[in-house]
């Protein structure tokens, strides 16, 4: 986008970043299939960027581009982070960067922990550590110059980061 390297720093000087440790306990495969239990449904992250450290268990899936509804596995690559573009960065870039729709489904079956039939199989324990990077609540988020023109108009009205996060949280919870 031809921006100075430190363009976004002033927008993140007083932000409310969050670091979480997520634990997904072993779960019956049958309960997952029947919808009695689930991991995390398809969603996008609200902020600017999410950095995710995940274990080798599996279960993270991302939607193929262009809202296809088709999800593919995002396997762990040892020593790496998954970087998700968040909704605010998508707004800033006028959709040049897309927010990542993702979900956590059942990881592969732990056959060692399973007893009996396939329906009684238990999924593996899964851990992940996401770091959610948020813009300052008072930052006005609007399309960056150069991401819009007469043929590609602005897709979003300007909004303060704090108002956007509040709106999303209120609609979610």
Labels describing this entry:
single chain; about 170 residues; alpha+beta; Jelly Rolls; 5-stranded antiparallel beta sheet; 4-stranded antiparallel beta sheet; 3 helices; 13 strands
Any overview of this molecule?
The chain has 173 residues and is α+β, with helices and mostly antiparallel strands. It has one domain (17-158): Jelly Rolls (Sandwich). The chain has three helices and 13 strands. It has helices at 29-33, 87-92, 161-172, and strands at residues 18-19, 22-24, 40-43, 49-54, 60-63, 71-73, 82-85, 102-104, 109-110, 122-123, 126-133, 140-141, 159-160. The strands form four sheets. Strands 1, 2, 4, 7 and 11 form a five-stranded antiparallel β-sheet that branches. It has a four-stranded antiparallel β-sheet with strand order 3-8-5-6, with no helix packed on it. A hairpin with a 7-residue loop joins β5 and β6. The longest helix is centred in the C-terminal third of the chain and has 12 residues, at 161-172. It is elongated and about 55 Å long. It starts with 17 loop residues before the first strand and ends with a helix. The mean pLDDT is 88.
């Amino acid at each position: 986008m031809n921006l100075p390297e430190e363009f976004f720093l002033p927008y993140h000087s007083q932000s409310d970043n969050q670091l979480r440790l997520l634990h997904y306990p072993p779960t019956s495969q049958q309960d997952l299939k029947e919808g009695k239990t689930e991991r995390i449904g398809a969603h996008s992250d609200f902020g600017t960027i999410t950095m995710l450290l995940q274990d080798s268990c599996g279960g993270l899936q991302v939607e193929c581009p262009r809202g296809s509804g088709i999800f593919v596995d995002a396997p762990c690559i040892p020593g790496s982070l998954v970087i998700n573009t968040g909704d605010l960065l998508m707004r800033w870039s006028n959709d040049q960067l897309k927010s990542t729709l993702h979900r956590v489904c059942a990881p592969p079956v732990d056959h060692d922990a399973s007893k009996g039939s396939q329906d009684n199989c238990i999924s593996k324990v899964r851990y992940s550590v996401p770091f959610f990077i948020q813009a300052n609540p008072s930052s006005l988020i609007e399309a960056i110059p150069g991401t819009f023109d007469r043929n590609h108009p602005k897709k979003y009205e300007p909004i303060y980061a704090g108002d956007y996060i509040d709106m999303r949280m209120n609609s979610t919870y």
